[in-house]
Amino acid sequence: MHKDYYKILGVSKTATEEEIKKAFRKLAHEHHPDKKGGNEARFKEASEAYSVLGDKNKRAQYDAMGSGNFNAGASGFGGFNTSQGFGGFDFSGFGGNAQGFENIDLNDILSSMFGGRRMRRGRDVQVDIEITFYESVFGVTRKVNINSRLVKQKEVNIAIPAGIESGQMIRMDGMGEMIENGQPGDLYIKVHVKRYPNIRKEGYNLIMDLSIKLSDALLGTTKNIQILDGTIELKIPVGTNSGTILRVKGKGVPQGGNRRGDLYVRITVNIPEKLSKEAKKLIEELKKEGI
User: Fold this and answer.
1) What's residue 250's pLDDT?
2) For residue 87, is pLDDT > 50?
3) What secondary structure letter does DSSP report for 74?
4) Could you tell me which CATH number the domain at 73-195 has?
């Protein structure tokens, strides 16, 4: 569901930082769950909007991408930087304040409205999940069950983005332990990717190893090869050497919209260990020709 954070806070797209903060203070004071008649859903919605618009970098990215492509809940699906240099996702910066906002301490704002009392916060929860290589390339939605003191078990949908690397973490704000009269903790998901036999990922590109016969390398051929999402025809040029890399455009990792990285096929030429008498004779003829 697309969310218009400006509309949620009741401010214009040209609003100043102070106007955004003032609008959030008003909504937080009105809807805080600790207050009689408070509205927890509206409070969380306003908090989410402020976590984006109250941060200069996130606000710029939100304005550039539009509400339809921005996912604040996954802390990084909107294109933040990453220390691992992968695909524009930020799965590493988890050292922030109680809400996980890089430059905003929501508790400081709320404590000023509630007599200096800092809000209680539930524990952060971490889970490990394993996905297939295919799912890591194209993305997948998984469900996990989270235990908490208020709710014995709750089911959470986790949107795993296309191109995620094994060992990376996703943070979901407010999806951790729930406590009475306080803010829920965050949920951290560590992703483990199963290996694939002959394909690996480098950024948005896929690298594939393909073994061919010596005759195919010398004479050239066209091969139907199975890739992750179907079958393609790959043309092997005449005189292809072992180690040659052939590029197939648009068959790599999805980058958003209709864009994808490329597939690079690394060729290995099989040299037979044993030759028949006839094959040896042919090789001798080739040798005479200087081949």
Assistant:
1) 92
2) no
3) G
4) 2.60.260.20
What are the tokens at 248? 């197939």
**Residue 269: enclosing H or E segment and its boundaries?**
strand 263-270
Alpha-carbon gap, residue 172 to 187, rounded angstroms: 5
How far is Cα 276 from Cα 273, in angstroms, rounded to an integer? 10
248: nearest Cα among 235, 267, 257, 258: 235
**pTM here?**
0.54
Q: Is residue 120 helix, strand or coil?
A: strand
Q: Which helix (H) or strand (E) holds 278?
A: helix 277-288
Asked if 81 contacts 70 with a C-beta cutoff of 8 angstroms, the reply is: no
CA of 272: how far to CAs of 150, 279, 286, in Å? 67, 10, 16
Q: Does the structural domain 1-70 have CATH classification 1.10.287.110?
A: yes
Using CA atoms, how far apart are residues 242 and 245, in angstroms rounded to an integer?
Answer: 9
CATH of the domain spanning 199-272: 2.60.260.20
| Tokens linked to 113 | 């409205």
Does 157 score more than 50 pLDDT?
Answer: yes
Q: What's the confidence (pLDDT) of residue 180?
A: 78
Task: List Cα–Cα distances, 1 to 4, 13, 32, 157, in angstroms.
Answer: 10, 20, 23, 14
46 within 8 A of 31, measured Cβ to Cβ: yes
Is the pLDDT higher at 10 or at 114? Answer: 10
User: Considering only 77-91, 168-182, 195-209, 277-291, which range has the smallest mean pLDDT?
Assistant: 77-91
List the beta bridge partners of residue 140: 160
Interval 174-202 mean pLDDT: 88
Give the HSE-up count for residue 232: Cα atoms under 13 Å, Cβ half-sphere: 17
